[in-house]
Amino acid sequence: MVLQQPPDPLIIAERWMLEGRDVAIATVIETWGSSPRQAGSQLVIDNSGNFEGSVSGGCVEAAVIAEAADVIRHGKPAMLEFGVADETAWKVGLSCGGRIKVYVERLG
Amino acid sequence: MDPFCLKKLNKERLERRAAILLTDLTDGRDRVVKETDPVAGKLGEAIRKAFLTGQSGAIEIDGSSFFLNVYLPSPRLVVIGAVHISEALAPMAKAAGYEMEIIDPRSAFATPERFPDVAVYADWPHDVLLERPLDSYCAMAVLSHDPKIDDPALEMALKAGCFYIGALGSRTTHAKRIERLKTLGFNDDHTSLINAPIGLDIGAVGPQEIAVAIIGGVIKAFRARDNLGKDGN
């Protein structure tokens, strides 16, 4: 049976894992204000920077992908926060004015 | 994430079973919780609520921080009978997030022209539902008015444990329906699971209002369902 919305990030993560790639999984843990993606939304990233899924409307993905490279290297999970109150938010630009917390972990 | 958890989670999702990925944010450890798994205490209560609402979120319990990521199968609404109520129901089901499909062997009724946005199967329910099996994340609305079409569908919905089963018809019609189902081996416990007259009691008049009553009944049943501790389907 096929899932409803291919490509599904977690199905892709499993495929990448079977291909022997190193994989990180980013998950939206909490949102405040108007955030485009709700808690539980996921983005999967491999060691070459390929990614699938989303944790925002596209505004913080680049920063999450950069952090994922470190997480893959060190194996230690990271909790990232993006929001208007945060200086980095001006750089990555959560245009919606919301705040989000993203958990990035290595698969395996 | 533990690779074993990822495999287990994907397997559950592909087989249309609800699952929660429970991550301890303090140490990064995770586990997959199924609806049938018993979990006690405050965490168990949070898991139960998450399965019901489908809302993922973080919780603090006794100084530990957990994230519950809920994966529910997308609910299907299977409608037996390509009738006027089905036409009114189609856009409402879509708006409420249900994948609706219509089954009616009367090919003059079940035409794509009448139902542009819905999967329509102009075949007998028994045949269609063998190909596309029902499960506990399916709702069924039986609307064809023809026992030859409706009864086999009801039988399959009862056996599959659909979270909502509604049947159109007056109390007299339904009493006769129950008698027929009893000759097939169903008892009062089974037949009491059928919502008839169909839908919420809002005094609905005409196909559009009956469709509102049906989708309301489906949503109510979905948010009240309790598969915890039951055998999976």
TrEMBL record, chain A:
Protein's name in the database: Xanthine/CO dehydrogenase XdhC/CoxF family maturation factor
InterPro entries per record: MoCofactor_Util/Proc, XdhC_CoxI
Originating organism: Phyllobacterium ifriqiyense
Pfam family, one: XdhC_CoxI
Domain XdhC- CoxI residue range list: 16-83
